[in-house]
Amino acid sequence: MSVRFNKKLSSIPGYTPGVPKGHSAEDVAGSEIAQLASNESPFPPLEEVVEAICSAAASMNRYPDPDATTLRRRLAERHETEPARIAVANGSCEILLAAGEALLEPGAELVYGWPAFSMYPQLAAMSGAREIRVPLDRDEKHDLEAMLEEITAATQLVLVCNPNNPTGTYLRVSEIADFLKRVPEHVTVILDEAYIEFQQYDDPEDSVDLLDWHPNLVLLRTFSKAYSLAGLRVGYALCSPAFKAAVDAVRQPFSVNALAQAAATEALRHGDRIQERIESVIVERVRVESEIAGIGLKTAETQANFSWLSLGDNGTEIEQQVVADLAAAGVVGRPGRLLGGPGWLRVSYGTADQDDRFLEALSRAVGDHT
Ligand SMILES: Cc1ncc(COP(=O)(O)O)c(C=O)c1O
Fold first, then answer.
1. Which residue out of 16, 112, 192 has the highest number of ligand 1 atoms within 8 Å of its CB and is therefore the one to mutate?
2. What's the predicted TM-score (pTM) here?
3. Which of 43, 197, 355, 356 qualifies as a FRET site for 131, CA 20 to 30 Å off?
């Protein structure tokens, strides 16, 4: 007889990692493989950040600061708010999971647009809450009007991913503001802004102002993308003190390790250089999007660090083959069927060299299969 696990376990969707089968992340990092499957930064962390990590490493006999005091202070200064309104976490994923734990239960409802970030279905599966997935509109954007219609007295949580992963599409802060005015106050709205730095429509601080009017709003940010720190796992929420207390209550006290705290604190001191990197990603975005159009494929209007491209009328049939052809050329992208969009492909921007390899392999694969 084998051990028995709880019933919900079998319904929890597993996370499919972006590295190719049979490889470790270290293999990929040290190889010629263009890892364009996880929306990471192609740049290594800034030198000063690496130095801060090395210097913090000398104190690893101590537990990290459970309150991430220095990092929360720096973040509060940056966003012109108080540290009590900032919850730092082991990646922004940790906040999502903790929010599920703190807000959801059987009988509760969770509303989100789909396709969106692949972790969202996990929140419903883990809590037993009912999930309502609202299809994106024909421009691959969140349909806020349709989402509002799904909110009931049982709704506890609404997730809006902006820019959206996997489509890259963006809703203006003014649209989010109108939406929030119509969401009942008992509903927590998490605005997942993992890619906010890459959009060119609003100042990334504009959504922060919405917190003054909506205590039920949570903004999720991360150091994994624009700040090149995905490997250290550090993200944060800008939120009400009540939300911070709730997520703190359901997770372990030392979730953000000391290296991550030191690295993120240092990275915040180099905003100008981070901004230069963001701009170079945007330049690459314009180039890659235009080349994809040249190949004859349609993309969603991305404001993130990746493209979401349709493989055309027979996309669902050729998707697997195209992904395999890209892999054979040493380029790893994400097939849309794993992300809720069969017939599409999500590819992050890498170095110009890697992107050239991707574009060449894509053009060849599309020529061979359409
Ligand atoms: C929309 C979105 N939110 C959150 C995350 C998680 O980021 P973190 O590395 O901070 O856990 C990701 C990562 O890909 C993402 O795409």
1. 192
2. 0.96
3. 197
